[in-house]
Amino acid sequence: MSERNTFARSLHDLGLGAWFGGSLMGVIGLNGAAADEDTADRDRVSTNGWAKWTPVNAAAIAAHLIGGTVILAANARRVQYQRGVDVSTAAKLAATGAAMAATAYTRVLGKRLERATEPEPGGGEGTEDLMSADDARRQMHIAQWAVPALTGVVMVLNSLHGEQQRPEEQRRGILQRVTGRDVP
Q1: Rg (CA), the chain
Q2: Which segments carry the region annotation Disordered (predicted)?
Q3: What DSSP assignment string belongs to 139-157?
Q4: Is 184 helix (H, G, I), strand (E, B) or coil?
Q5: pLDDT tens sequence across 65-87
Q6: Domain locations along the chain
Q7: Burial readout 151-169 (b: 16 or more C-beta within 10 A, e: otherwise)
């Protein structure tokens, strides 16, 4: 395997950046713009915008995961032998999984809201599930904020991994793992 992983790191970082930035822009910009619409149009404007973002977001998440998998494989020995890298890697994987779950859940809620607010053939809004539309709105408000929060945590842990790759940090971490003592 090559010593450099520029392409994988680019996929990883650009994918995460798009996932974080898109979710933050959506929750603030798109939902904020939709809130300025008439009550009847708010859900349609918001869910339509999020639906258009979904394929791009899926590609961003895939790029992040593919890049991360290559980086993890390239650094497997360092994760195993450098003290602290295993813990930060596990935390990053957990945060990524939580962000993926929150992203998927917001999409499920969005589809539920789309169905509940679709115009019926005879005129008005769909009434099949109005209570669940209100529930979906409340739950989506929380879940949509969870996505940029969790992807932000992944970004911070990514920064920590960058610091842990410094040669001095690697030397210290490996010596600490081997000796079981703190090394200056």
Answers
A1: 21
A2: 163-184
A3: HHHHHHHHHHHHHHHHHHH
A4: coil
A5: 999 999 999 999 888 888 889 99
A6: 6-179
A7: bbbbbebbebbeebeeeeb
Amino acid making up residue 101: A
Of 80-89, 140-149, 174-183, highest mean pLDDT: 140-149
Contacts of residue 21, defined as CB under 8 A and 6 or more positions apart, other chains included, come to none
Return the higher-pLDDT residue of 178 and 21.
Answer: 21
Query: Could you tell me if 70 and 5 are in contact, meaning their C-beta atoms sit under 8 angstroms apart?
Result: yes
Place of tokens 């639906």: 51
Mean pLDDT of 49-65: 96
Q: What is the pLDDT of residue 116?
A: 79
Residue 125, classed as helix, strand or coil, is strand
Quote the DSSP letter at residue 83.
Answer: T
What is the chain's mean pLDDT, rounded?
Answer: 88
Alpha carbons 89 and 110: distance in angstroms, whole number: 31
CB neighbour class for 122 (10 Å; exposed up to 12, middle 13-18, buried from 19): exposed
* Structure-token match 């994988």, residue found: 8
- pLDDT above 70 for 98: yes
Please provide the DSSP assignment of 90-121 as one string. HHHHHHHHHHHHHHHHHHHHHHHHHHHHSBPT
Taking the model in full, what pTM does it have? 0.84
Long-range contacts of 126-132 (CB under 8 A, 24+ apart): none
